[in-house]
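Hey all, quick one. A colleague (J.T.) asked me to put the FE2/S2 (inorganic) cluster job into the tracker so the inputs and the structure tokens live in one place instead of scattered across chat threads. No bug as far as I know, just bookkeeping. Sequence used:
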Amino acid sequence: MAKSSEESPSRRTFMMVVIGLISTVIGIALAVPILGAVLNPLFKKRDIVWTKLGKISDLNLKPLVPKFVPVYFRVKEGWSVNTLPRQVVVVKQVNGDLLFFSNQCTHLGCPLHWIPARQKFLCPCHGGMFNITGQVVGGPPPRPLYQWVHKMEGNNVYIQNKFKDNPKDRGI
Ligand code: FES
């Protein structure tokens, strides 16, 4: 006759394994949403914000003479709010239109310099060159200069930390 009050060692081991598995599944089910909530900000895109560049009349723009203007975007990234210093290159065209270029070379992102004698933007890294309208005129850059998204409100110009045709469509 079998003993009802004593379990065999193999039955006890089996029960321990089943309880262990159930505990693991419950633990994972509880941990996944909590981890998701904690880590989610890390994988979010950078916020897109508007920042005032200033009054156009204060920039003293001359036709075809680029003006490098610093701009500071306050953006939320993950759990923190950061200040991103950037440069806007404002170019007044002969007809009065304004262009707002990034100063970053479209090859690997080095900062550009304006060379007045050559009327070109020059990249010091690999010799990339752009003309006053942002078109590539030499070197390895694969595309014209990026232009900042901007808007005018009266005499004030506002810039977004985003390029007009950024293929990644995220904050800069
Ligand atoms: S980063 Fe400008 S040419 Fe390479």
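Adding what we noticed when we looked at it: Residues 1-43 form one domain. The pocket of FE2/S2 (inorganic) cluster is lined by residues 105, 107-108, 110, 123, 125-126, 128, 139-141 (CB under 6 Å).
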